[in-house]
Amino acid sequence: MEANKRIIIVDDQQDLRDQLAKLLLRSGKKNETASLVQQMKARLLGTAKEEESDSSQGDGYIVTTAGQGQEAFELVKKAVEEGKPYAMMFLDMRMPPGWDGLETAKRVRETDKNIEIVIMTAYADHDQRTIAETVGTPEKLLYIKKPFQTEEIFQLALSLTSKWNFEETERSRKYWLETLIRCMSKIKGAKGNQNEVSVTALKAILSFTGASKGLICILDEVQNQWNVEHVQGIEKADGESFVKENSQRLTESKTTQNLAGKYLLPLKREGYAAVVVIYDVVSQNDPEWYKLLSLLSMTASEVLSSASHAKDNMAGLSGDDRAKINDIVTHAASLKEKLGNSPDAELASKIGALAKAILIK
User: Fold this and answer.
1) pTM (2 d.p.)
2) Strands ordered across the beta sheet of 141-145
3) Choices 3.30.1370.10, 3.30.450.20, 3.30.450.40, 1.10.3720.10: CATH for 189-315
C-alpha cells in the first residue's frame, strides 16, 4: 500500500502555518538547488504551475493548512470520508475566536481515531492529563512547546507518519487474516455436489479480494475444454466468451496473473483443474496479502478436487456394486425392525442411511 504522508497544520497565525508547511515540504526535497533551477526554467518557459494556498505537495509530505479548529475538523472529516485520511496533525492550542486546540482535538479524534496529533503551545492552558482524558487515545497524542526547533518538526513528522503507516499495515493484515479464516471456514464447510461447492468457493474468494464480479470454470479433461461452472455479477454468456477465447492461457496458468484486465487464480491439483477469474479485484501492494490469497486458493483447490473425485467415484459404481449397496439398505431396514427399541437399532438405521447416501450421490 502507498505510504500516507498527509499532514495537516492548524494554527490561527498564517505566518506560522506557512513556515511549518515550507519546512515540511523542503524536508522532502533531496536536491533543493536542482529543484529551484527547474522552477526558474519553468517560469522562463511559461510552464510554471501555481500552487494552491491551502494544500501543497513536496517530494515527500502532502501538507494542508487550516486557520481555525472548525475548518480543520471539516477537512479531517472529508479526508476520512474520501478514504484519504491524514496521518498526523500539528495543532495550536490557542486559536481565537473559534475552538481551542483541546476542543478541536476532541472533535477530530471522534472522527478519526487513528490520526497522530501534536499539540503546539507556549502556555499551560491545560495540563497533559486533562488533555489526554478529554481527547482520548493518549498514545497518539504528543506535545511540543513553542518556540520549537526545525529538527523537532522534522523528527516528529518522520516518526509519526512512519508510526501511522506501520499501524495501518498491521490493521490491514489483521483484517485480511480474519477475512481469510471466515472464507476458509465457508469453503471447508461447503456441502453438496460439485456445483454447490464451486459456488461457495467463488463467493469466498471474491469476498477475500474485495471483488463483486467473477466466475469459476472447470476443465473437462475428457472433452479437453473449460466449462463455466458459476458466475457472479456478470452475464454467463460473457464469462463463457472470455473462457473460450482464453482457454489456452487458462490451461497454461500455474500462478496468479493478469489477463485482459482480469485476475486469474488457478485452483489446480493432480487430476483436477479449475480457475477463478476475478473481474474487479482490489489488488494490494503488501506481499502478505498474496500469501494469504495463496493459502485460500490451496484450500479451495483441495475441497473442489475432493468434491470432483467423490463425484467421479459415485459415477463409476457398476451395476453389481449398486445391487450390493441396495442389499445393505434392505438388510439394515430389516435389522432395525427386528431390533425394535434396542440401542443397536439406531446403529442399523445409520448404516442404512449411509448406504442410501452413497446411491444418491
Assistant:
1) 0.67
2) 55-57, 62-66, 6-10, 88-92, 116-121, 141-145
3) 3.30.450.40
What's the burial of 333, exposed, middle or buried (CB within 10 Å: 0-12/13-18/19+)? Answer: middle
Torsion sign across C-alpha atoms 284, 287, 293, 297: positive
**For residue 281, what are the contacts with CB-CB under 8 A and spacing of at least 6?**
209, 210, 211, 263
CB contact at 8 A, 58 and 24 = yes
List, for residues 160-178, the tens digit of each pLDDT value.
Answer: 999 999 999 999 999 999 9
The CATH class of the 6-166 domain is alpha beta
Instruction: Name 75's Cβ contacts closer than 8 Å, sequence gap at least 6.
Output: 8, 64, 66, 86
pLDDT at residue number 113: 94
3-state DSSP assignment of residue 61:
coil
Which one is predicted more confidently, 19 or 46?
A: 19
Helix (H, G, I), strand (E, B) or coil at 89: strand
Q: Where are the domains of the chain?
A: 6-166, 189-315, 319-360
pLDDT surpasses 90 at 2: no
Which pLDDT score is estimated for 334? 78
